[in-house]
Amino acid sequence: xxxxxxxxxxxxxxxxxxxxxxxxxxxxxxxxxxxxxxxxxxxxxxxxxxxxxxxxxxxxxxxxxxxxxxxxxxxxxxxxxxxxxxxxxxxxxxxxxxxxxxxxxxxxxxxxxxxxxxxxxxxxxxxxxxxxxxxxxxxxxxxxxxxxxxxxxxxxxxxxxxxxxxxxxxxxxxxxxxxxxxxxxxxxxxxxxxxxxxxxxxxxxxxxxxxxxxxxxxxxxxxxxxxxxxxxxxxxxxxxxxxxxxxxxxxxxxxxxxxxxxxxxxxxxxxxxxxxxxxxxxxxxxxxxxxxxxxxxxxxxxxxxxxxxxxxxxxxxxxxxxxxxxxxxxxxxxxxxxxxxxxxxxxxxxxxxxxxxxxxxxxxxxxxxxxxxxxxxxxxxxxxxxxxxxxxxxxxxxxxxxxxxxxxxxxxxxxxxxxxxxxxxxxxxxxxxxxxxxxxxxxxxxxxxxxxxxxxxxxxxxxxxxxxxxxxxxxxxxxxxxxxxxxxxxxxxxxxxxxxxxxxxxxxxxxxxxxxxxxxxxxxxxxxxxxxxxxxxxxxxxxxxxxxxxxxxxxxxxxxxxxxxxxxxxxxxxxx
Length: 576
Ligand SMILES: [Zn+2]
What we know:
By secondary structure, the chain is an alpha/beta fold. Helices cover about 55% and strands about 10% of the residues.
């Protein structure tokens, strides 16, 4: 006798045998009892969860000689014919291979002949989303004026691809992806019926691999039986399915905990020599960190689809990692997996990913970091107060404290910085004003220049960013230049010798830029662009023309004592 695959041998014969879809089977049974069967149903859901099985059960329930009944007898000629797929009243059509208008025309033609007396004509169209538009239109006409005793059951894994005009004429049932536990439970029952000895870990591995599909679970069990016979253990299952031993993932956790880079390289080597699939390893590793994350976040084993023993280990590892670390680890694994897909040197990417994970320094909570910044700031402010007691500006009678505050341009002042450095741009400008000789009334038609070159220089980046925000192209051109001189109201901006094009562009829109600079500096300046003929630009320029994040970061590190302290205190690094 030929071997019948498990999925077929144990196909549910009654609604109550269908696992995990009670919300569908209950409703259909009620509809049968109340004689309220619709003309068209749409069964949507992942593959292998029982859509066509339920469609056939419904067909049997309606056409059983003792029906319509919620418990088809499976003994009458109608039930047997349907079970054997040879009923003249029930048509199973594969939408993927019969997707054209002609097939639907044939279908409509067949509607002209009524079903056998007392029976329903039932069309089960699987993968209905594959039909062409013309086919859908033809189908729609039938659905708009459904003949009596005709029932359509559409099954699809992609309901979103079915036109809404069709959807609106169907009663829709969404089949659920099966949980690993219900797949494992079902497989355990099958194993008992088949007199197969199988351990719990094997059932878990198979259910996990089946990924929500009972049919896949059953066919994997078929394979395992063919491979291992009637006595199955988890090592055989893992071997057959190429499943990577969970132990390896826990090993990675430990390497990270110990910071053992050497061990990481060894592990990558082992994965290579054992012939494991790198992608599967990284996907499994991401899953592993995800499990720790779930253990950490939920404090409940229910969300973890793992064996009890592993569950305990995840919980114990949860304390070793912070949520941010786990998110970063998952990202590293996912990124590497992505890279390996597109690269011929998978081993290198795997190695780099493992070393990256192991070298990953622990994330610092942002709140903790901010508190720390506050502390440092307070200290430096106190320091500044001691060094420079408050002075009162007599001229304006406005009390003014020359204290280190977080001004926009200079960031947070250095704790031991000179007083001039700790002044805000506003106070600097005030000082400049005071230094200038008194001007006659007549001359004040033109307002005096109330800004110092050093301020323009220190705020140059801010100015460029502002222009960029308003006029992106002009801002980019301007960023190539650097302010080199302020003569009266004329601001000289020097450009590289090769930047002739930039100068021309800026000069064409000079008025616009001058207006924008006036908006940000509150001073009207005249812009003069010059070419750097002597090659001094690189010496005076304090910020490179185009800054990438890394240079920006190292610059910040140099200029800002607080950032420097943070980096030193926490051994921080720049993460993209
Ligand atoms: Zn029957």
